[in-house]
Every structure is written in C-alpha cells, then in structure tokens.
Design a protein that fits this description.
alpha+beta; seven-stranded antiparallel beta sheet; two-stranded antiparallel sheet; 10 helices; 48% helix; 21% strand; binds zinc ion
C-alpha cells in the first residue's frame, strides 16, 4: 500500500475502506486503520512549494484530528460528537510556514479525501511555464485545466482538453512541414485524427507512430468515450504531448542560442573593423 500516493496523488473525494491489512517486516499480516497510517506517515516527500516557487523537500507533521463536539440549534443543549476529520500537513525545508495540507474525513467505515491546499492546479502550473516559448496562453491554460480535471478524477473531461492540445500540436506540425502538393489547412482540419496523423507521419517523432493504437480513441465523439477507456489512454496521450513539447522547447532554445551567438559574432566583427 502506497500511503504517499493516497495522501498526495489521489484525486479529491476518493474513498477507501478504513480497515486495511498490512504486512510487517516479519511477513505477518495484521489489520489496522488507514487513517492511523496516514496520521503516522513519516517519510519526507519532494513537492512543489508555491511560496518558494521551486521544488522542495517537505517533512510531515504528525496528523491532527478534529473530533470535537459541537452544538446545533436543532438539537438544543445536547452536544453532538463530530465524525473525525484528519489533517495531514507537510512543511517546506526552506521555511516552516510554507505548508501543504491534505484533509480526510472518516465516514463510518470509509475514509474520504476531502481537501488539498494549495490545489494541484497551483502546484502544476509552474511546470508548464517552461512551455511558454512554444504554446500560446490559451493552450497553456488548457494544459493546466486538463491536469486539474485529471486530479479531480474527471477522466473524460481532461481527456478532451488533452485531445485539443494534441490536435494543436499535429496542426502545428502540418503547418511547419514541407509536404509536396500540401492540402489546405481547411481540408486538413476536416480529416479524421488517424488520417491527419498519417498525413504528417514522417514529420512526427517515432513515439507518435509507436502508439498509433490510441488514435481511434482520440477520434471518438464525446458520447462514445468511456471513463475507464480515457483513464487508460490518458498517460499515453500525456506522454506524447509532453514529449513533443519538450522537443519543441529544445528546438526553440537551440534557435535562440544560435541567434544570440550570431549577434555576439556580429558585435565582435563590427568592433574589429
Ligand atoms: Zn517553501
């Protein structure tokens, strides 16, 4: 059981049975509570710090429970005991005030992830800033939205955003490629995804062609898409997108370095004269 994955990576509103079986170092299995494992989780984690605006090491606090009794006008003076909620905080190595927080609620036998702050959106947007050189602002926002929807477990919705970005990358490849007797952009846009990819095939990285089995899914209409199918293909679509973006950034950086070098050379030459 990966407790770090449950605390940090799982989407909001994921539910688990709170009773879990764990194996100790002697190979003996015993039953314990998931909320206890979360509360006593001690490993340090690497995470983006929105205050430092950098990746940092975070160390966990021991979990804090809120089980206090409350009063409610419906129930007069009788104190009502809350169902327990558990907050697990992690602190940044650079400053103890920089924290990330995850909340869980124990609904009888089930544990539910109920909160996360800062949001996954805030912690991933920085990762995308490096793509500013190759994506416009709208595409950058769509990338962040896709990732945010994914973190909430909305596989179809995030799949649709990733598909738009994917199509944008294919269109860019079409526009920038030297194809003899190239069809118009309007005609190209009308093609099915598989045919678009075939059309620009030789200009795409091998990775695109190695994963051609996903393109029929990419072509499907919204009403045909299944949640688990999107979940299955999301990692591949994402890998293709980020692979292409990284490649485009590398290319752009090389171009910029060339320009800078040419400018320096020019400056030196004019000084020599
Ligand atoms: Zn920090």
């Amino acid at each position: 059981m990966d407790i770090k994955q449950i605390i940090v990576d799982s989407p909001l509103y994921t539910k688990w049975n709170n009773k879990v079986e764990v194996e100790d170092e002697n190979g003996i299995w015993s039953e314990t509570d998931l909320n206890y494992l979360i509360s006593s989780f001690k490993d340090r984690i690497e995470h983006y710090c929105t205050e430092c605006e950098a990746k940092r090491i975070f160390a966990p606090d021991s979990g804090i429970y809120d089980t206090s009794s409350v009063r409610n006008s419906h129930y007069g003076q009788q104190a009502i005991r809350n169902k327990p909620s558990l907050f697990k905080t992690f602190r940044c190595s650079a400053n103890p005030k920089h924290q990330i927080l995850f909340g869980f609620y124990l609904d009888d036998s089930q544990l539910v992830k109920i909160s996360e702050y800062p949001s996954k959106y805030d912690t991933v947007i920085e990762n995308f800033n490096k793509y500013k050189k190759v994506l416009d602002n709208i595409q950058l926002k769509e990338l962040a939205k896709a990732s945010q929807l994914e973190s909430y477990g909305y596989a179809i919705a995030s799949f649709l955003y990733y598909r738009r970005i994917f199509e944008g990358i294919i269109l860019k490849n079409f526009n920038e490629s030297d194809i003899a007797e190239k069809i118009s952009e309007e005609e190209f846009r009308k093609l099915r995804m598989e045919d678009k990819l075939n059309y620009v095939k030789e200009f795409l990285p091998d990775y695109f062609n190695d994963n051609s089995h996903i393109y029929s899914t990419l072509s499907k209409g919204v009403h045909e898409l299944e949640e688990n199918e999107c979940q299955e293909y999301l990692p591949i679509v994402k890998a293709i997108i980020f692979f292409s973006l990284d490649e485009a950034v590398d290319k752009r950086n090389k171009e910029l370095r060339k320009l800078e070098f040419a400018k320096k050379l020019n400056d030196i030459n004019s000084k020599i004269k």
